[in-house]
Predict the structure of Alpha/beta hydrolase.
Amino acid sequence: MDILLIPGLWLDASAWDDVVPAIEALGHRPVPVSLPLHASATLDDQVAAVLAAVDAASGEPMVVGHSAAATLAWLAADARPDRIARVAFVGGFPATDGRAYADFFEVRDGVMPFPGWEPFEGPDSADLDERARHDFAAAAIPVPAGVVQGVVRLTDERRFDVPVLVVCPEFTPAEAQEWIAAGDVPELAKVKHLDLVDLDSGHWPMFTRPAELARLLAP
């Protein structure tokens, strides 16, 4: 199976470098997706890049979105519900129709830069040492405003037929279930085939638990 890997905010396709060989060892074909990150890039541009990867895949791929990119993976399921075997969200949940994609932090000069580690203190970053934090921050790519402020548009109810896997790193499956039951994740409340699995890590398991993450993703 082709497993398409979509990086989250401030990351490019190289974020999956340690996961790729682990997925290959399990007999699958990992495909890290390169998202447009130039200053004028829009959410539509990034969705188009994901859909191009889906269309180029062999057979019916699995589409994996990390963090905010859970929404990109879900937009792919909305656009290609008959083409995708499964969607996986790693440490994130899809936004609802009409919401901004990822307008979480201050936008300056047309981009949303990495805000530093203060907003991520605690479970999110507990397993990242000082070197890992420094390297992440140094390599972080500011995300264009046209991406983070882009409006999510979901149009095909058949997306709820696509099986969904939620990998729960800095939170537990029980917590995720509580959020879904409380109405905090309305898209997942309508999914017909939903699995939640635990992963003992922070928010970026592709760096700290790549082999374990690969085993959870590879069916």
User: Anything to note?
Assistant: The domain at 2-217 is CATH 3.40.50.1820 (Rossmann fold). The beta strands are 2-6, 29-32, 62-66, 86-90, 111-112, 143-144, 164-168, 194-198.
